[in-house]
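Collaborator request, handled under Task 6.
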Amino acid sequence: MKISITDKGAGITREFAHAIGAAIRGRFIDIPEDMGKGYITGFSWGKELRMMIRNYYLKEDVYIERTNELAEGQEDIVFLLRGIFPSVLQPDEQLLPEQANIMICKHAVSSVLAMPSNTILVA
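Structure tokens returned to the collaborator:
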């Protein structure tokens, strides 16, 4: 599945949730059972500092093509830690662990995010 999202500075999680039909429960986004299992959540400390926590897997490959349209003067820095923490999900089937990696970039960078199927995505 390919999803195109325009990020105007508020992040992409809500747009991702709508694209896959996920339920939004407070600050949690629950991955629908037909798509996989798990959740995405996060915290926000004003406009300057946000943190996303994810612990889920998907049954099919998902690619998010993210285009950024940030407000003038907005120069956020993104620290992306992937595959660093162990998952608390106990799926019935054998899943691959996400390859650990770290990315640091300006938020203004447009990107393609790949979320492979049958892989535990944790950070």
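The cover message to the collaborator said: "The CA atoms of residues 30 and 38 lie 6 Å apart. The chain is about 5% helix and 50% strand. Please let us know whether this matches your experimental observations."
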